[in-house]
Design brief:
Layout: H1 13-28, H2 33-44, E1 49-50, H3 51-58, H4 62-74, E2 78-83, E3 86-93, H5 97-129, H6 135-158, H7 163-172
Antiparallel strand pairs: 1-3, 2-3
Length: 188
């Protein structure tokens, strides 16, 4: 069980609230709730924690904690750190928000976008050689491939922009539209 409801919990109320909310958000993003809660706990922790501590604080099984830690390590969102005088593995989270976002985006791209690009290229190539496929279906496959490849290209460009420049770009919001040509009625 990953719900943390016991009043005698070791976590301060704001931390508990954050951990529970992060777990819920993780579930909405397709991430196991325990994985997200452990990530939240480590993100807010002022010191590295070992697996047993995390299991106790979150009231989850040690095996669940272990599997969650492996997944978070795979995403490079946490790292193992040594603690003087303790042989157990301790963990801390990446706390730089841009690094965290970049690692999540890169992981999702590798797991979701790259296979989609490859599959759409294959579909488009197959459709181009298939006389039985209709013009509309072929065009829609090509449009989908082109769209996903454009998003992939945009990602490749943005990942190279320094975080400070990205923050300026984000801060500009809608104002950046003033620098672009006016949209046609169809594009609006």
């Amino acid at each position: 069980m990953t719900e943390i409801t016991d009043e005698s919990n070791l976590l301060p109320p704001a931390v508990l609230q954050f951990v529970l909310h992060w777990g819920e958000m993780g579930g909405q993003w397709g991430v196991n709730r325990s994985v997200a809660q452990i990530h939240a706990l480590l993100y807010l922790s002022e010191r590295p924690l070992h697996a047993e501590e995390m299991s106790d604080m979150l009231r989850i099984a040690r095996s669940n904690t272990s599997n969650s830690l492996k997944e978070l390590m795979g995403w490079k969102l946490i790292r193992r750190v040594p603690v003087m005088g303790d042989r157990r593995d301790h963990y801390e989270a990446e706390v730089d928000l841009w690094q965290m976002l970049t690692r999540i985006a890169q992981g999702r791209k590798e797991r979701e976008i790259d296979p989609a690009v490859a599959a759409l290229r294959t579909c488009a190539d197959t459709a181009a050689r298939d006389p039985k496929i209709g013009r509309v279906a072929r065009q829609r496959i090509d449009d989908m491939r082109d769209f996903v490849m454009t998003i992939d290209d945009w990602y490749q460009q943005m990942i190279e922009v320094p975080p400070s420049r990205l923050m300026m770009l984000i801060g500009m919001g809608k104002r950046i539209l003033a620098f672009l040509p006016k949209a046609k009625a169809k594009d609006a």
